Amino acid sequence: MDSEQQARLARLPTPQALDDTLLERCRLVVVDLETSGLNVNRDRILSVGAVVVENGSIDLGSQYECTLFQENHRVTESVLIHGIAPSEVARGVAPADALLDFMAFADNGVFVAFHAAFDQRMLQRGLRQTLNTRLRHVFLDVAELAPMLYPEVTGRKTLDDWQDYFQLRNSQRHHAAADALATAEILLILLSRARAQGIATLAELNSRLRHWRRLRQARIGSL
């Protein structure tokens, strides 16, 4: 990491905590990563797509999309899914610069993703390896929020499942920017549902999530 990258890293703001900030007033950065595979300890980030939800709407003027250069990237089964060819990766942005640009775009926002644990761990590892820094931003998982807020809907587990349920279209599945936008559209529906249930702040949403997880674990443990 050179001196300019160090300076940019030092200028990144303190991330938003899950506090009493109103949901409609916080910056929610909906992110999707396309990777070389699903092994969080070995595979690498190939593409980042993100869109901002703020003031109750998707800010289409505030989107991020980038393909990362990764040395010796080869055709794998994942390429057949996301379609990012080795030639495209070879023309990509250096990982340190790409991730710095992305973190600057994210600003102090709360990250949101579908099956967020995977994106969180991949981003965490990417930041550590390329910039020797920790990921401090918190993540919310739409794959948890959706069943929590719509308990009457059963059997829906994937992004496609919830898109079908809410009658949303996504013609470019497994494309980072398109999947981020699809997740953001679902998030807007979930935020509206949360408000209807009296959830107004990040802290209240997090508290409800913790309670929902405990109930889910108790049900699983009783089986």
TrEMBL record:
Organism superkingdom: Bacteria
The Exonuclease domain, residue ranges: 27-196
One GO-annotated biological process of the protein: DNA metabolic process
KW Nuclease (keyword) present: yes
InterPro entries: Ribonucl_H, RNaseH-like_sf, RNaseH_sf
Annotated protein name in UniProt: DNA polymerase III subunit epsilon
Protein species of origin: Pseudomonas abyssi
UniProt key word Coiled coil: no
Keywords: Exonuclease, Hydrolase, Nuclease
Pfam families tied to this protein: RNase_T
